[in-house]
Amino acid sequence: MKGYLEVICGGMYSGKSSELIRRVNRAKYARKQVQLFKPTMDGRYHATQVVAHDNRNHVAQAVATAADILPLVEESTDVVAIDEIQFFAAEETSRVVYELMCRGKKVIVAGLDLDFAGRPFGAIPHLLAVADEIDKLRAICIQCGNKAYISQRLVNGEPASLSDPQILVGGVEAYEARCRGCWEVKD
After folding, report:
1. Is the pLDDT of residue 175 over 80?
2. What distance in Å separates the CA atoms of residue 54 and residue 170, rounded to the nearest whole number?
């Protein structure tokens, strides 16, 4: 395998998308051909851009599934970047990343490592195990100011229940950065 895998993970508001955009821009500065992808389900800020919470943005191709990425990657592309990777099906995503690496691509992915209930999320656990480089970013807990590890989902201002759906695309109206001491989940 000639490729290389970088994983940027952490909770919401930790700067994952900003870091991904920074790496995409650095690769372009180094005259590398880069393609950036995002899931179509994440239309929080823009349909065809990765937009970070700090308003950094970069044009991206939106795809419904991870498998949709493979036919879109051009032969001349050096770097394939994928934001919000946890929203794609885990097994399919792992296969797609592996295939890109077999093609000799540098793959940079960003996503949540834990869901709102503190469970490993999507393909991230597998990708962490096979990554060449890992950056686990932390936000600041909105309650106490310590390092935040988990995305606290709120429903009508109260902690979500374990029985709530795993995926709910949202922003400040539905999520807060929390440390383990301030994080809560019903049930």
Report:
1. yes
2. 15
**% of the chain exceeding 90 in pLDDT:** 70
Residues 186, 96: Cα–Cα separation, whole Å: 35
Average pLDDT over residues 106-117: 95
Average pLDDT over all residues of the chain: 89
Enter the pTM of the model.
0.90
Would you say how long the chain is, in residues? 187
Return the residue matching tokens 């909770």: 11
Positions marked catalytic = 84
106: tokens are 């540098």
Q: Please state the φ and ψ torsions of residue 67, each to the nearest 5 degrees.
A: -60, -25
Q: What burial class does residue 83 get, using C-beta atoms within 10 Å of its C-beta: 0-12 exposed, 13-18 middle, 19+ buried?
A: buried
CA 132, chain centre distance (Å): 17
**Structure confidence at residue 43 (pLDDT):** 59
- How many whole angstroms separate alpha carbon 173 and alpha carbon 176? 8
Q: How far apart are CA 95 and CA 112, in angstroms?
A: 19
* Predicted pLDDT at 165: 66
Q: Which positions ≥6 away from 176 have C-beta within 8 Å?
A: 12, 142, 143, 151, 152, 154
Where does 4-139 sit in CATH, by number? 3.40.50.300
